[in-house]
Amino acid sequence: MIEGKTHVESLDARHELQVADVSGLAVELPQGSSVRRMTLNMGPQHPSTHGVLRVVLELDGETILSARPEIGYLHTGIEKQFEVKKYQQGIPLTDRVDYLSNLNNNLCYSLAVERLLQLEIPPRAQWMRVMLCELTRVASHLIWLGTHALDIGAMTVYFYCFREREEILKIFEMFSGQRMMTSYIRIGGLALEPPRGWHAAVSKVIERLARGIDEYHELLSSNPIWVNRTKGVGSLPVDLMLELGVTGPMIRAAGVNMDSRKDCPHTSYEKFDFDVPIRTENDVYARFEVRMEEMRQSVRIVRQALAGMPSGPWQADAPHVLLPDRERMKTEMESLIYHFKIVTEGFRVPEGSVYQVVESPRGELAYYVVSNGTPRPHRVFMRTPSFGNLQSLGAMLEGVLIADSIAVMGSMDFVLGDVDR
Amino acid sequence: MLPEAVAQNPQVVALAEQIPGAIVDATVAVDGLVLGVSPKHIEGVCRYLKEKESFARLSAVTGVDWWPREPRFEIIYFLHSLARNARLRLSVRVAEGESLGSICSVWRGANWYEREVFDLFGIEFRNHPNLERILMPSDWEGYPLRKDYPIHGHKYSYQEE
User: What ipTM describes this predicted complex?
Assistant: First the structure.
């Protein structure tokens, strides 16, 4: 401590010294401005970026002047890998694109190939697919809710959400043997016969979820800190959002009625009775409300699937595409030949291309599959919802505070595996 | 010139009249219409479809490498009309080394998709606001999604940066 000065004064003096030290490095100051501009890297290891997203922020004090998302840290070349694999070998790759909504990715790829093959899928398989995809939607939204609430400081919800999600993952394990990388939806139907006791297990989880969702909604919507931090934050003009490629709950919270389950029904979604939740406030809170309502609608769809599950085969009648039953393979010559052909050579898909769209929990998911008539795809392109949604981040963060950027990023619910592929 | 199946389509006819020479080919895929557009007209066609035919959304842009066929690359634009609940595909054939007009001035969202095509296929887009690599590191050599690019064998050291 310097002689004759109080502790506080000396701290002040030291502070001044520090400021004087960095003044040479500072960027040009605007005339009359007392605050220095700063460039800050948020990520790629920041926990609020939910993966490896790097956002380059230019700051004026605590206000973000511009934000530039830098992506590609999780690029694994999945699209390239598709080109050297047989069609059926592509299914495990689709799991790993958006690892929180793997069944939706399985479904989209299978539907695309099935359309090229012109396969007809039996009703039981279709209803199973719908049921499992809606459970995936709930599981994915639970992760979003838990981590989003944790980012904004509400910790309790996180534990509840992960507890419920675990129950859904147990259902997936029961069906496919895997909690996350299920690969359960295959070209031509399902991977395995639905397990014994699935109906009771799913009913139990669904009843629990129906109660839980209302509880968590109440927990946050009656939390004044949550409401203050989310209302009126992160809006963007609807036209701009549409132009930038924003889809899913984000665009529905901006008042646009766009849901592929209704617009271009696939997998017999047209036989289910459900609503598409729309809000017009277009802020973080509206996105929260839309996703909460979507979970309720998913529960509604699963209940209908449980009540009206058709009986019959769970795979298409296409022996040249689907592996035969093990028992038949060991006793029938024909099945053995098909098995051998599929495993060694694969199946040929007629020449052509298809752009198959489904609604993933994050928005419009599409697979563009180009076939050249061989057992391997010529090109598979994935139009992933997170990529389009993330493109709006720069525009959405302009002029907001750093603290709000956490809320905005949480409300986008992107998965970096889905962005970088 | 146009195949029978689409020659009667009023939208295609209107588009062919508005921008002569723009439509070079049209096919019907399992999921709908695919219009082949000449490379020099792509921006005009996109603007026309957005403003006059209510295709408010650009769903995605991607490429396909048809090597060794010529012209080598096919760039595909996936359009979506919310008002009509319709989807349309535009396909443009580009040879190696040839550049294509950017459509960022029509849909701002084309920005990242065109960067991705540039990154993975090496096709340049004229008048793009920021044509840089997006998924691969900025100093990467080669274009990974080209058919003559090996599936493995490349090494990249982060230590040397």
Answer: 0.89
